[in-house]
Amino acid sequence: MSKKSNSAAVLAALLAGAATGVILGLLYAPEEGKETRKKIKEKANDLKDKAVDEYSKTSERVKDKYSEVSSNVKDKYDALSSQFKETAQNVASTVKDSYDKYKDQVVSKTSDVVKDVESELEGLK
C-alpha cells in the first residue's frame, strides 16, 4: 500500500507543480487580465479533469484487484471446504465400518458364551 501512496503523493506533487507553473506563466505573460483569468480557469479545469481521470483509473484498479483477491479467497475456501468434507466423510465411514466389524464380533462372542452357559446349565441338571 505504501508504494501506491507514494505514487499518489508524487502524482499530486507533479500536478500541483504543473498548476503552479502554468499559473505563474500566465500571470507574467503580456496579456489582458480578463484573458489571463480565462486561461487560468481553463487550465485549472483541465488539471481537475486529469486528476479525476487518474483517480477513476486508480479506483478501477483497486476494484479489479479486490475482485481478483476476493475470487481467489473464495476459490481457496471452496477447495479447503471440499477437502474437509471429503476427509470427514472418510473418517466417518472408517469409524462406522470398524464399529460394525467389532459389533458383529461382540454379538458372535456373546452368542457363543450364552450357548456355553446354557450347555453348562443343562449339564448341571
TrEMBL record:
InterPro entries: Desiccation-related_membrane, YtxH
PANTHER family on file: GENERAL STRESS PROTEIN
Annotated protein name in UniProt: Gas vesicle protein
